[in-house]
């Protein structure tokens, strides 16, 4: 048991419309006694596919103690619902860049002798390989750069409130925690800062829930066992708050990892300071 991102349902706001139920491919929710209920932490991946379908705003993502998400057990639940739900679940993982969970799901289907949707078949994966013509939708929404100057983004979502700090993409990763404005100020952001790192973005001045940010970074350090953390900020006082959150998270964590701070000029996007802290 550990802290992770998972959905929370406000019973007072829920009107029992049930629109969220079919939009949870994992089958983690049911309509019980006229209210939407989370029936098992094990089935909720914390990616929030259901959130946008609630007309009352009763479903939110929260950070709390929860059983770790289990892809194999989720697939047992999903397979009972048929091929359409299987495909929806795979697309859900793909669109969020959850390569690890996607690989586990595909392996489970193969092991159980259940047909893999054509879009996620080995043949489709081969067609998507570098140098091949794509003949089917990509199995991951986030791809590496295909040309000099291309995107180096390797994960999604990237906003710190939305991401799960223990997702496979954070396991053992070098993490770049960037203030929102940095990517707009630094022309070479992808090639000079992001390449080879897993990204999280936040604004220490405008974002609510700074305590949640601290807890998520702590979870990255202790549970995902990230290798390092680099905090990139603009040359303005409010941006220092992001470094303060990261430092407090590292102090609270059981593991100790390298923490690097980078400050970017507001005038020309150049690096004014870069040092271990």
Descriptive keywords:
277 residues, alpha/beta, two-stranded antiparallel sheet, 9 strands, 28% helix, globular
Percent strand: 15-25%
For the biggest sheet, the summary is: 5 strands, mixed
Please count the beta strands (DSSP E, at least 2 residues each): 9
Structural class: alpha/beta
Topology order in helix (H) and strand (E) letters: EEEEHHHHEHHEHEHEE
How is this structure best described in words?
With 277 residues, the protein is α/β, with parallel strands linked by helices. The protein is 28% helix and 19% strand. The chain has 8 helices and 9 strands. It has helices at 71-79, 83-95, 99-112, 122-127, 182-185, 189-194, 210-222, 240-252; strands at 2-9, 29-32, 35-38, 59-66, 174-179, 198-202, 228-234, 259-264, 271-276. A 5-stranded mixed beta sheet has the order 6-5-7-8-9. β7, α8 and β8 (259-264) form a beta-alpha-beta unit. Mean pLDDT is 84; it is low at 128-147.
């Amino acid at each position: 048991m550990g802290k992770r991102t998972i959905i929370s349902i406000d019973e007072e706001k829920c009107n029992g419309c049930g629109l969220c139920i079919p939009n949870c491919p994992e089958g983690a929710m049911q309509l019980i006694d006229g209210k939407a209920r989370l029936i098992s932490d094990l089935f909720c991946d914390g990616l929030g596919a259901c959130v946008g379908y609630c007309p009352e705003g009763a479903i939110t993502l929260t950070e709390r103690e929860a059983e770790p998400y289990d892809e194999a057990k989720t697939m047992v639940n999903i397979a009972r619902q048929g091929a359409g739900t299987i495909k929806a679940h795979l697309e859900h993982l793909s669109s969020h860049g959850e390569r690890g969970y996607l690989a586990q799901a595909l392996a489970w289907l193969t092991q159980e002798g259940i047909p893999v949707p054509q879009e996620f078949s080995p043949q489709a994966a081969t067609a998507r390989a570098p140098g091949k013509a794509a003949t089917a939708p990509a199995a991951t929404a986030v791809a590496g750069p295909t040309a000099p100057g291309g995107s180096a983004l390797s994960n999604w979502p990237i906003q710190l409130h939305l991401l799960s700090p223990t997702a496979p993409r954070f396991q053992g990763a070098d993490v770049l925690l960037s203030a929102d404005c940095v990517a707009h100020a630094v022309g070479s952001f992808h090639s000079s800062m992001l390449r080879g790192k897993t990204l999280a973005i936040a604004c220490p001045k405008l974002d609510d829930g700074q305590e949640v940010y601290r807890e998520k970074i702590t979870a990255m350090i202790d549970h995902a066992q990230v290798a390092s953390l680099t905090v990139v900020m603009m040359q303005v006082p409010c941006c220092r708050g992001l470094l303060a959150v990261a430092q407090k998270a590292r102090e609270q964590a059981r593991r100790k990892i390298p923490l690097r701070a980078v400050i970017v000029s507001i005038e020309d996007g150049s690096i004014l300071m870069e040092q271990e802290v």
